[in-house]
Amino acid sequence: MLKLSQAIGAAALLLATPAFAQDRADSDGQSTIIVRGKVLDAKEQARALVGRMSVPVAGQLARYGDEVCPFVSGFTDVYAQKVAARIRKVATEAGAKLGDAKCRPNLVVVIVDDGREFTRELYRLYPTQFTDMDPSKRKRLLASTAAARSWTVTRIHNEDGQMIGESRSSDSDTSMNGTRITIGNGKPVLRIPQASIINQSTQQQIELAYVVIETRATLGKNLMQVADYAAMRGLMQSRPEKLAADDDTILRLFEPGALPGPTTLTASDRAYLSGLYYGRGNRSAASQMGQISSGVARSGGEPANP
Predict the structure, then answer these.
(1) Which pTM does this prediction carry?
(2) 242 plus 103 within the same structural domain
(3) Which of 151, 198, 234, 261 has the smallest C-beta neighbourhood within 10 Å, fewest atoms?
(4) From residue 226, how far is each of 83, 267, 303 by CA, in Å?
């Protein structure tokens, strides 16, 4: 409780402060204070949303460079096939390449009773699938009790999509005095065909993505909601916990405290994926996010296609 002297001091401070937001006095002599917040325009809103949706890796937004090959487990075969087909449809519309029916799975969707236990057991059995993950992120993932989680294995490629390879004795160059020099001396080498001051000479590509959803979280959700969520989380890198409770994206579908999620991919989601998979993959995150934001802003108010 404030002492009388403190209360008086506080009142004096208020009286000495200019009333920038003060309206005219009401009939009872009391002043009405109106606080007016800044209203963001469509472009600013889009930039803010894209910023919350995105997780840059080494200054870029990672995406699949090779073919996308979804695999779904935890549903009956019929439902699993429907979810996989939906993910393929979303990936195709975004501009990603698809693998054939016999491709090796690299976007894995799993429905399990205990996501934390599943993730820890996977880490115990296949630690190499977590090797490239930042240690702090890996620790947070393994300790998470979230109803839905996702992680990706990303690797650096050159601008032409070639990945790091081990140098060979034939990978050599000739110096000015005629001496043959082995490039890399047998160590991993990433060949950079050309340098640019506009675009980066490398790109971050998703090699493998897991989307793990607990059975309890799917109650009350329809199959296509789950499929669209899995597609969105698998085709990009995101941290849904950064989203606002009413953000226009399927990514908040399983977030605690969020408003009821969309019933399908939103127009913003589709614009995001289209922007992410448009053009070359060696652009900077700033360039990618700028282009994505423009697409999201243009999609505002458009109905989401089923």
Answers:
(1) 0.75
(2) yes
(3) 198
(4) 8, 17, 19
